[in-house]
Amino acid sequence: MPVNIGLLGLGTVGGGTVNVLQRNADEITRRAGCEIVVTHASARNIQKQRICNTDTIQLSENPLEVVNNPDVAIIVELIGGDSLSKDLVLNAIANGKHIVTANKALIAKHGNEIFKAAQKQGVMVAFEAAVAGGIPIIKAIREGLAGNRIEWLAGIINGTGNFILTEMRDKGRDFSDVLAQAQRLGYAEADPTFDIEGIDAAHKLTILASIAFGIPLQFEKVFTEGITQITQEDVEFASELGYNIKHLGIARNTDKGVELRVHPTLIPKTQLLANVNGVMNAVLVQADAVGQTLYYGAGAGSEATASAVVADLLDVVRAMSADHKNRVPYLAFQSNALSDMPVLSASEMQTAYYLRMQVEDKVGVLSAISHILGHQEISIEALIQKEPKENETLVNLIIVTQKVLESNMLTALEEIEALSSIHGKVTYIRLEHL
Ligand code: HSE
């Protein structure tokens, strides 16, 4: 007996999912032990030209028709957003249907509620495609690393942001120009500020941290900074010092609590992660038994994301007949065994820094700055002062520090900015050696 799928959304990922399911139907059937067939689908405009063949699919402009259809066993939610999609998913769960979704905002913001409802109904909710597109990172952490205590993870988990930073560094291209290209290629979110302001990465980091540490989803506690403040000048200075700037999501399990942060980060060029370019994603995981493992691949795109959706479909189909107690828990740890360890505030986080400031080229400036840093127990790792440009009196002073408590750094920056020989704000970017 085939398993019937109802697809919500026939855009980039929805179309890709239909294409992969149709093209690889034989392989998929051999793996699943039965056929997996999209029988119903909804789209805002069913007349629209599609990237897939929908001849054998019953189309509707009302997603509720799909969600309420008794012939459909699994709902694949590919609409995005977290309002309509939430209602539809909760509705489908109430109807006893299993869920596969690529929707990171939905899981990060409403996952706790959705899993509770799903547990009550005894249905599965699978979300591999929500994080890092085609990279099977959820499965790797949840199942492959299940014997480990995960210490931290750091990932390039927004393809659009990585594409922009790569093009700025390699070709000196303009920020907005590269963003427009990412939108044309279908990588960017419907609202591209989600990509460039770090919100998309924060959604994904929320999910990764929960399955890594067994904590509830806490999107609102992620410290989030985007890439809009990164200038060509900083990209070049970082490079000169031996670093690439990457937009990272970092989750770290510390004695005091969990650090959850998304921000541009200088990482040494010698790191593999520093060489993940373009739209590619990668996640580096440090775990106690295995050590470091790195997962790399396409983080966005039609069939790359469909690859994860289809893998989830296979998992769900194979586990449909299993007792709910024997299925893999939603967040990798048993729902009644999630930890309440606190998420640290930004001021409690510890990281190294790259600082750039415009200073007057005169005696005593350096000693005043190093005095302030020293007073806050901030140790300097490297320092360069650039020659003043012609007819200019100010010079760029760049300092790389060692790891420090963020609150100490913010106090030091306030004091440095108050010095009369410092002009304007100090640019500061976090730095990690990983
Ligand atoms: N906008 C996202 C990105 C798509 O650029 O990574 C995949 O989640």
Tell me what the structure shows.
With 434 residues, this protein is an alpha/beta fold. The protein has three domains: 169 residues, Rossmann fold, CATH 3.40.50.720; 162 residues, 2-Layer Sandwich (Dihydrodipicolinate Reductase, domain 2), CATH 3.30.360.10; 84 residues, Alpha-Beta Plaits. 35% of the residues lie in helices and 25% in strands. It has 14 helices and 17 strands. The strands form two sheets. Strands 7, 8, 9, 10, 11, 12, 13, 14, 15, 16 and 17 form an eleven-stranded mixed beta sheet that branches. Strands 3-2-1-4-5-6 form a six-stranded parallel beta sheet, with helices on both faces. A hairpin with an 8-residue loop joins β14 and β15. α4 packs parallel to α5 and α7 packs across α8. The structure holds L-homoserine. The site of L-homoserine has 11 residues, from α7.
